[in-house]
Amino acid sequence: MTLQNVKEENTSMSEDITNVEKNITKPKKKKRNNNLCHYVEGNCTKKQSMSVGLCKWCQKTFCINHRLPESHNCIGLQNCKTQAFELNKKKIGNEKCYAGKVTSI
C-alpha cells in the first residue's frame, strides 16, 4: 500500500462516519405542559387560571382550586396574614368614635 492509498482510505472512512452521525436522530424529549397548576404537593394536573390564579406572594400561577395562599401552602402566607391584619386595624381605627369633652358652664 502506498501513502496515497492510505490517505484516500482514511478520508473516505471519515466521510462515512460523518454521514452516519448526521442520519442518527436524537430521541425527542417530552414537552412539559407549562400551563399546569404549580401546586406541587398534590400533583395537580389542572390548567392554570390566568385571570385569578397568580399569587402575589410567591409569584406562581395556580388553578382555581389552589389560587388562595392557604390552599397551596404559600411561602409568603405569614406576610399575607400580617398585611391583612394591618389593613383591618387601620380600617377599624378610622371608624372609631371619640366622645367630645363636655365644657362646664
Secondary-structure topology with pairs:
Blueprint: H1 3-23, H2 77-94
Model description:
The chain has helices at residues 3-23, 77-94. With 105 residues, the protein is mostly helical. The chain has a domain at 35-90: Zf-an1 domain. It is rod-shaped, with a radius of gyration of 34 Å.
Q: Would you identify the CATH architecture of the domain at 35-90?
A: Irregular
Biggest pleated sheet: none
Please provide the count of β strands: 0
CATH class group of the domain at 35-90: Few Secondary Structures
| CATH topology (fold) name of the domain at 35-90 | Zf-an1 domain
Instruction: Estimate the global geometry from the Cα principal axes.
Output: rod-shaped
- Alpha plus pi helix count: 2
Radius of gyration: 34 Å
Mean pLDDT: 76
Percent range for β-strand residues:
under 5%
What string, H for helix and E for strand, traces the elements in order? HH
For the record, what is the CATH homologous superfamily label of the domain at 35-90?
Answer: AN1-like Zinc finger
> What is the structural class?
mainly alpha
Helix content: 25-40%
